[in-house]
User: Fold this.
Amino acid sequence: MSLTSQQIRYLRGLTHHLQPVVMVGDKGLSETVMAEIETALDHHELVKIRLRTDRDSRKAWIRQINEACGAEKVHIIGQVACFFRRNSKKPVIALPVKN
Assistant:
């Protein structure tokens, strides 16, 4: 599912009040961390993840989360990245209609 720029702007506004639900540290994206991200995306659809590492590793981790979880990157600020993945069974967030 690709998001329009209008939908991304809407989701970015929703992320401001969110706290990071997953923190990725020294051990990187282990199976356990990826399972936590999957669970968070299933329940919340829109999640904020803190990535505690250098810039190059963050970029690689963000790419890996996009591919492995099928999540859309909403935005990145510093060590925090926000992702969205629609829950097909129980949608939580109503997105603006695509134009």
Q: What stands out?
A: The helical segments are 5-15, 31-44, 55-69. The mean pLDDT is 92.
